[in-house]
Amino acid sequence: MTSSPIHTARTGDAKAARRMSPMLWRILAFALLLTLIAAVFQSLTPAYLSPGNLHALLRHMAVQGLAALGLTFVIVVRQFDLSFPGVASLGAMTLGFLIAGGHGVGVAVAGAVAVGLVCGLVNGFAVAHLRLPDIVATIAMGGLAVGLAYFYSNGSSISKNFFMSGILDLNDARYFGLDAPVAILALAAAAAALVLHGSRFGRAFYATGENRTSAIFSGIRVKLYVLAAFALCGGLACLAITLLVASSGAANVSAGNQLLMPAYAAVYLGAALFGAPSVPATIAGTLLMSAMLNGFTLMAVPYFYSDAIVSTVLIAAIAAFDPKVGAALRRLRAQRTASAPLREARS
Predict the structure, then answer these.
(1) How far apart are CA 237 and CA 246, in angstroms?
(2) 54: closest CA among 295, 308, 340?
(3) What is the Cα–Cα distance from 73 to 55, expressed in whole angstroms?
(4) How far apart are CA 72 and CA 263, in angstroms?
(5) Collapsing DSSP states into helix, strand and coil, what is residue 20?
(6) Which secondary structure element, helix H or strand E, spans residue 179, and what is its range?
(7) Sign (positive/negative) of CA torsion 210, 215, 218, 223?
């Protein structure tokens, strides 16, 4: 009996679907999630997909994305950094202090980023060389950074010279046809992707996180890469807060408070969707988180509800990314597959 052309075609389609790259499935899952979020919020608030709101969404995404990019390096080497919100607040106040003192935007931004790099280096030294627990060391650094931020103005906001200095152009200008924050994020993401995915340095970051002992025997300077990961996290957090200060028009000591949960949620959500922490995964996770947070803002949802939702997403993403959870699910699936013939025989 010969197969019909329709049956043959369907069989071929099924085989092609099974041969489809796992990464393609992950990209389709991301696109589906993003479309679902957009459809839900557009039905609830018609202004969601308006050009003005999309520009605001992408500018907000740039802030969270830069912080999440720095955190990605720390997660790749299998460490945690809880200090970068406090470090970002110190960077914001450093930026404001320098602008108020009459310094140019370039000097002020460089000073803020330098503060982040120094704090990150201290974190990295404490974790890699002194072998302190990363959570304890970074919490201490975050508290120290917030305390130092109060020295600039006794805790009051700084906005002197902001309108004349040109700092606001970092939010309002356009580069390469893109809003300035989006262009800065795109350049930073391209540079991070080149380092992490297109060079031997990036492979060393991943090797450090996967198996530190093997990395050492392979000649990789593990401590140096841990140090670099924390430094990049601090520097990019301060670059992120620079964009936030440019959009708000003032620097204050609580500026970094809103970075922690969205950044972690973006990195882990992206890692859960794409199978591992990476620059493209982090950008995808940041876009999903920003799309949700922007929708909640348009709907005037109280911040504590949106924070609860972000926390829930973070817990779910960590659970999905955790290899122990994945192994448990695979064992459960294998047990069900093995017991299926027995159930059929008994029936």
Answers:
(1) 14
(2) 295
(3) 28
(4) 9
(5) coil
(6) strand 178-179
(7) positive
User: What domains does the chain contain, in order, with CATH numbers?
Assistant: 48-346 (1.10.3470)
Tokens describing residue 17:
């679907």
- Show the 3-state SS of 301-319: CCHHHHHHHHHHHHHHHHH
In the numeric block, the tokens 């890699």 are attached to: 128
Give pairs for 103-109: CB < 8 Å, separation 24+.
104/165, 104/166, 105/165, 105/166, 105/167, 105/169, 105/170, 108/165, 108/167, 109/239, 109/242
Cβ distance 192 to 270 under 8 Å? no
| Amino acid occupying residue 336 | R
Give one word for 219, left, alpha or beta, with left for phi > 0 and alpha for psi -120 to 50. left
Structure confidence by residue, pLDDT tens digits, 191-216 = 999 999 999 989 999 999 999 999 99
Site of tokens 């796992």: 22
pTM of the model as a whole: 0.85
Pick 317 or 302 by higher pLDDT: 302
- Please state, in angstroms and rounded to a whole number, the distance separating the CA atoms of residues 230 and 224: 10
